[in-house]
Design a protein that fits this description.
Layout lengths: L4 E6 L10 H9 L2 E6 L6 H5 L9 E6 L11 H23 L4 E5 L9 H8 L4 E5 L4 H8 L11 E5 L4 H10 L2 E5 L5 H11 L6 E4 L7 E4 L11 E5 L7
Parallel strand pairs: 1-4, 1-5, 2-3, 2-4, 6-7
Antiparallel strand pairs: 7-10, 8-9, 8-10
Length: 241
């Protein structure tokens, strides 16, 4: 029996119309679709791809054992997530061993902070994996905000707000342009780092970029908590173009 293939499919930042033609074709042709989600939700990637999933398609729903309930610095976090990814990879491997293809959905692009990467690491040696790139969340957000990010020889840094404040401030000082991801409870830390870097007035906050309930504002004017799908943009030099 011929083994099946895993297609790791980037479904884009949120607007279903930003799904690529290739992604739509692969999803529609796959007899099995897998995706990550919270235990109490459908899953963002699954929602984006909904119109392209054929009737009768088998679904593998991978519900995270925890999300923000456990800190990344907690030693049990990596043990628990590692076991979860092992189980997910085993379930996919069993399907491909039976000769069936699987489309594994991932928000944005699979290889940019995507959970699908962890399954790719576990499967790539024994299962054929093909990657369908997707429009990144940051690309969707800077387009939503109509902010050109880099000019000429600008350096762009992608920074997780989960990093220590000292490191975050240091990178914000050094780089021309920046995308700061994973805000959430780290928003106060980012505000402090921006102040230390002297760049508070440059930061633009984008929430749920490309989605129907998107929001764009100066970070200084942003009040309230930041949801998971939010980031901060600091454009590069805006002089000579």
């Amino acid at each position: 029996m011929t083994s099946g293939t895993v297609h790791i499919v980037g479904v884009g930042p949120g607007d279903p119309e930003l799904l690529t033609l290739k992604a739509a074709r692969v999803i529609g042709q796959s007899g099995v679709v897998a995706y990550f989600c919270r235990h109490d939700r459908m899953g963002h990637a699954r929602r984006i791809a909904d119109a392209h999933i054929s009737e009768g398609t088998e679904e593998l729903r991978f519900a995270y054992p925890f999300t923000i309930e456990r800190a990344v610095s907690d030693p049990s976090y990596h043990d628990g997530m590692g076991a979860f990814y092992d189980e997910c990879a085993d379930r996919i491997a069993a399907v491909t061993a039976a000769g069936r293809d699987v489309a594994l959905l991932c928000e944005g692009d699979p290889f940019l902070y995507g959970s699908a990467m962890y399954l790719f690491d576990r499967l790539r040696e024994t299962v054929e994996c093909r990657i369908v790139p997707g429009i990144t969340g940051m690309g969707g957000c800077w387009s939503e905000a109509a902010i050109p990010m880099t000019h000429g020889d600008d350096v762009l840094c992608v920074l997780p707000a989960t990093m220590p404040e000292d490191e975050l401030a240091s990178w914000l000082i050094k780089t021309d342009a920046a995308v700061v991801m994973k805000l959430g409870r780290n928003l106060p830390k980012l505000r402090s780092a921006l102040e230390r870097a002297g760049r508070s007035s440059e930061a633009v906050y984008v929430e749920r970029g490309t989605q129907q309930d998107s929001r764009v504002t100066r970070l200084e004017d942003m009040d309230g908590p930041a949801p998971y799908f939010s980031l901060a943009l600091l454009p590069g030099r805006r002089g000579v173009r």
